[in-house]
Amino acid sequence: RRHTGDPRSRIFLLASGRFYERASDGREVDLGKVTQWNEPHLIVIDFYIATGPDHPTEVEIRFEDVGKGTKVMILHRPKPGSEHLWDERSPRYAASWQLVLAALVRHASI
């Protein structure tokens, strides 16, 4: 993973509010903060990646039952403190989301 430099690191997203990456040696990097957790329908995160905690973007993740599966909708947008960074950073976010979603599909298909 790129935030700790440890390919064996794990990412944690907790209803308590923590969103972080932990390396195999115990080092941790905060990736954001959960601001809403409405299980099983909605998670909203102040997202620190590429902007830091002083200028977070917002990630809204919605889950919807669809037949025998689940539709996952992700909306990633600037917050007032990160609007000035959005145009520069959003192409990287878009590319990263494609990788994340592809990995989730692979994992769900196992």
Outline of this structure?
This protein is of the alpha+beta class and about 110 residues long. It has 1 helix and 6 strands, in the order E-E-E-E-E-E-H.
The tally of beta strands, per DSSP, is: 6
Taken in chain order, the helices and strands follow as: EEEEEEH
Largest sheet: 6 strands, antiparallel
Bulk shape: globular
Going by helix content, strand content and strand pairing, the class is: alpha+beta
User: Which band does the percent of strand residues land in?
Assistant: 35-45%
Mean of residue pLDDT?
Answer: 90
* Helix content range: 10-25%
Give the strand order of the largest sheet, numbering strands 1, 2, ... along the chain: 1-2-3-4-5-6
In the predicted model, the low-confidence regions spanning at least 5 consecutive residues are none
Radius of gyration: 15 Å
Number of helices: 1
Distance from first to last alpha carbon: 21 Å
Topology record:
Blueprint: E1 10-13, E2 18-22, E3 28-38, E4 42-47, E5 57-66, E6 69-78, H1 83-108
Antiparallel strand pairs: 1-2, 2-3, 3-4, 4-5, 5-6
Can you put this structure into words, describing what you see?
Helices cover 24% and strands 42% of the residues. It contains one helix and six strands, in the order ββββββα. The protein has a six-stranded antiparallel beta sheet. The model has no long low-confidence stretch (mean pLDDT 90). With 110 residues, the protein is α+β, with helices and mostly antiparallel strands.
